[in-house]
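Help: read this over?
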Amino acid sequence: MEIVGPTSHFYVSQRLRLHYADWGNESAPTAVLVHGGRDHARNWDWVARELRHEWHVVAPDLRGHGDSAWAIGGMYAIADFVLDLANLIKALGPEPVVLIGHSLGGAVSLMYTGIYPERVRKLVAIEGLGPPPALIEKLRGRPPAQRMREWIEQMRQLGARQPRRYATFEAAAARMREENAFLSDEQAHHLTIHSVNRNEDGTWSWKFDNYVRTFAPYRFDVDDMRALWSRIECPTLLVRGANSWASDPVKDGRIAPFANARLVTIPDAGHWVHHDQLGAFVAAVREFLAE
């Protein structure tokens, strides 16, 4: 009998109990779907339903997100997310996987693949190349002391910040729609169900740790990232929404380090391409995976 939805599982990474959703079909090759910042594993449900019959689809909650534990101390460096992904993929078995990542999850997937190119058979990254080059240049000029002062102050402010409470579930769903104008009411409702916990007083709060909002005080190392991207051996599909804030990696040169990558730009889509134009996104991914 076909399972309607995924099963929940947990694994341990760096002493944290981390969650992932498993859509079954274990005899098929594995596809790991990695969500973006302040998101969760169940944001992939629509994509997973499309791919589950051909792939063993697994979608983790990153540390500090969804039903995974929050990091002690509240530090969320991209290296920690890569460690968690590496531990999950190792636990899933020896076969190379397909990786599909969005935003932060795309960056994590790209970094992992550059470190372990033999462990990934194909890679899809939705706007996962990090800040646009123009923004990196703007931030690069800030001296180390300034970056550290700003980070310390930001951490202090987050320490004093209480999780926002919404009086009703509908109010939380309305906030979800504000974040992405492309979402339908049905999509916003589904995403919100898996994004919130109900508090004792009957209000609702987001599951993610507020500390995931901060950025590490270290400078974004373009050379390191390009060196990792150049080590990726598998076919790579870079996906971008035509209406997104993300810059075009062909025009800005970020696609250059990749040995075997191409870009697809999805019309009428913003940053969350897999939500905004599900059909077009799935069609592009199916074609790519079938090659």
Summary: The first strand starts at residue 7 and ends at 13. Residues 7-161+211-290 form a domain with the Rossmann fold fold (CATH 3.40.50.1820). The two ends are 31 Å apart (CA to CA).
